[in-house]
Amino acid sequence: MGKNKGKKVEAITPRDVDFARWYTDVISKTEMVDYAPVKGFMVIRPYGYAIWENIQKLYDAKFKATGHQNMYFPLLIPENMLQKEAEHVEGFAPEVAWVTEGGGKKLNERLAIRPTSETIICSMYSKWLNSYRQLPFLYNQWANVVRWEKTTRPFLRTSEFLWQEGHTLHETAEEAQEETMRMLGIYREVAEKDLAIPMVVGRKSESEKFAGAAATYTMEALMHDGQALQSGTSHNLGQHFTKAFDITYLDRNNEQQYPYHTSWGVSTRLIGGLIMVHGDDNGLVLPPHIAPIQVAIIPIAAHKPGVLDAAQDLKKRLEGRFKVTLDDSDNSPGWKFNQWEMKGVPIRIELGPRDLENNQCVLARRDNGEKIPASLDDIEGTVGDLLETIQQNLYDKALKAREEKTSTAENMDEFKQRLAENPGFVKANWCGDPACEDKIHEETGASCRCIPFDDEQEVIGDGSCVCCGKHADKMAYFARAY
Amino acid sequence: MGKNKGKKVEAITPRDVDFARWYTDVISKTEMVDYAPVKGFMVIRPYGYAIWENIQKLYDAKFKATGHQNMYFPLLIPENMLQKEAEHVEGFAPEVAWVTEGGGKKLNERLAIRPTSETIICSMYSKWLNSYRQLPFLYNQWANVVRWEKTTRPFLRTSEFLWQEGHTLHETAEEAQEETMRMLGIYREVAEKDLAIPMVVGRKSESEKFAGAAATYTMEALMHDGQALQSGTSHNLGQHFTKAFDITYLDRNNEQQYPYHTSWGVSTRLIGGLIMVHGDDNGLVLPPHIAPIQVAIIPIAAHKPGVLDAAQDLKKRLEGRFKVTLDDSDNSPGWKFNQWEMKGVPIRIELGPRDLENNQCVLARRDNGEKIPASLDDIEGTVGDLLETIQQNLYDKALKAREEKTSTAENMDEFKQRLAENPGFVKANWCGDPACEDKIHEETGASCRCIPFDDEQEVIGDGSCVCCGKHADKMAYFARAY
């Protein structure tokens, strides 16, 4: 007898009762992640890591298709190197973990565990680059980074996380800007098409940009609780680092020049977004493109003749095209339904004696609970189509939810009222003055998430700044954020 | 005019003049790797990293096919945790890099950057494991590790390297032993079939085994200079760690038990082996299964009408099945020949006006210099077959080289003479006494690389120990080693 026979899956705290507890329940009960012995660090368990592998595969293919190659740079950065770009060190130094002893000896110089790799990569680029003929440099690395954080939550903010960081060099400012936009576009494309998370994109304000960047661009997602999640950033670094690290090359006119520089990254944080955008009170809801298991087959009355064989046949038919599991454990069907539902598997297939008599099975959709009888004849085609339908539906649902949680405000009173009534994005005109940005943050808790690009700009009301009332050139998205 | 037009590729030091310099020349001129700012650390450049990605892909597929899943454990291990298994800490403590400051504060406890992850993984396993129903635990991680080394050489021994480490738990000692052997088998299979490196496998002596293991098994390769390279190890850890970390479960009889434990790893060191086994005085020689570029197309008299178009057509035909590059730079064909030869590309295809007239091209083999005219009609098939021929030939050549460098010795004089005349493996009977092992090492510089399994055991001479002359149960492989 199965040890879980008859047991119910332990309940998950409802989302709208306590969203933070819901999140913690989901990530632990689904065994995606666990807390490490060192505070603020996480262990990514197989179910979480398989999602990360899928995310990696999708992005890595697009990086390579756009001419980027992978490299690996060292984990440890000498302190003097981290200090070369003034804004950069100011931004990152407070979060650094320092190695001070190695091989039984105290080191002469502290070594930073990379919080990001601009400095060490630039030190190598300055050695490698000689001529314009070598440009562009289009490189990326997949790596772990450490940033000592005070308040942490698995995937969303941890002292160590996994990410990729692209680092490119270009002849002209225009090419660097194009690259910065290209990578933001790739980030958004995979996030929307595969993670089914609609993104708002735009430029970061001066106070929110990357330490050392000329400009930072971001994609921002809205979570179920109305808080925003910065989900990927692409930085135009101008010549800040190339000058600090004396990276020069001979240009087409045989003159020494500093190249233009970009960097861009997405991280395991995306997994947190995936959970908080799609999940519901029964647990995870995973988009088919990213789910480690797309189809779970559950035999009904498995002891009846032919059922288990038919379930195994079905698995064989499907597993060439899809990621399939057959749950032939001795737990009860009801327990299995809950279990695979909690794990967010897009389609559950139920197959029992009566189904077999009718040459059919039942497909249960995780995204909307619908149960669909389907002939076994073209089950591969039916499942394939349904997975795409679910993928699209999850995106549409998430977009609708975001739109419902997005409001506009013309003055501070409206701003506060909108956030109180309907937490989410507030679109408001902003004059660009950091004093207004600070005041908005102090009074509402919302930060400037991004200033949309011109093609997505709108004028709210009469075009005056939501805070100071002066003329505002731009509208921005504000929200409380993770 | 191309900046390299007319230039010759700078010469590589011949292997037999100075093997160490040859190695350094090859890895730097082919841009596989560079030296990092912190001594002993390396930067893996795209050409080196692409090989690592290929190695990862091959092993990862086999790990998954044998039921293993990937996870990710934290980089930092608290000092008290590293100390729980006595032999383990003794073995690794001298090589540890310690984090003592984080987030602007001195830490209460030093944190080790993982030199290997047995301890932190066991601390989590003890939390996760409850019942025999959960066993086996079959997990792996791909990660970076740090071991502070005094003498380093890129890929071969570096203070940081990339690897995978498998960590499994089992109900019985037999299952753990089977797993240990299964993974050694997988290591060997990929190494021999894909890296084309023949391996000697067997058990490590007590003094050479992993710190904390019950038994360590190894695959050992022989480099061109006659030195051995430990290329992958699989450890049966018994219950050493499961007891130290109090990992218990309820067995089939409802009794508390300690599970049996294995760990196994291969690393970026394999790239060093690949270079030193196959490379020659012209540079790298890469086995087709692992080469980032399998075919380099060089147009001859590229300015003549039709040549460049035909080269591009050829590239299009081949690139669906193979990893192909077309070198249409304005360097001279001779320079290109040298360049791609140095990079170890298995097949160079030359295509000039006269070839086109005859509907043919010329295939130049990197492994033996042979030039083969081939019809363009079934060029895909011809190239595919030739790549497999080259793959096999590289293995055969390497095996022959190893056999020529393997000798036997019945006493210490013979041992020294063999090593002096023909550096390589010396097979000799060994009584198993560590004193003899030490003496052999002191007098010859050769260490015990492994004790072959019974099916590959031989008796040398009269079966007496090469050192003390007493009866020896086993024969072992000795060599100087990296």
From TrEMBL, chains A, B:
Q: Which Gene3D superfamilies match?
A: Anticodon-binding domain, Bira Bifunctional Protein, Domain 2, C-terminal domain of ProRS
Question: What superkingdom does the record give?
Answer: Bacteria
Any idea what job this protein has?
A: Catalyzes the attachment of proline to tRNA(Pro) in a two-step reaction: proline is first activated by ATP to form Pro-AMP and then transferred to the acceptor end of tRNA(Pro).
Which PANTHER family does this UniProt record tie to the protein? BIFUNCTIONAL GLUTAMATE_PROLINE--TRNA LIGASE, PROLYL-TRNA SYNTHETASE
Q: Key word Ligase present in the record? A: yes
Q: Which reaction does it catalyse?
A: tRNA(Pro) + L-proline + ATP = L-prolyl-tRNA(Pro) + AMP + diphosphate
What's this protein's name?
Answer: Proline--tRNA ligase
Q: Which organism is it from?
A: Pseudoramibacter porci
Name all Aminoacyl-transfer RNA synthetases class-II family profile domain ranges: 45-287
Q: Which PROSITE patterns match?
A: AA_TRNA_LIGASE_II
Q: What is recorded about the protein's domains? A: Consists of three domains: the N-terminal catalytic domain, the anticodon-binding domain and the C-terminal extension.
For this chain, the family text in UniProt reads: Belongs to the class-II aminoacyl-tRNA synthetase family. ProS type 3 subfamily.
Q: What is its EC number?
A: 6.1.1.15
Return the GO cellular component terms, semicolon-separated: aminoacyl-tRNA synthetase multienzyme complex; cytoplasm
User: Which InterPro entries has this protein been placed in?
Assistant: aa-tRNA-synt_IIb (IPR002314), aa-tRNA-synth_II (IPR006195), aa-tRNA-synth_II/BPL/LPL (IPR045864), Anticodon-bd (IPR004154), Anticodon-bd_dom_sf (IPR036621), Pro-tRNA-ligase_IIa (IPR002316), Pro-tRNA-ligase_IIa_arc-type (IPR004499), Pro-tRNA_ligase_II_C (IPR016061)
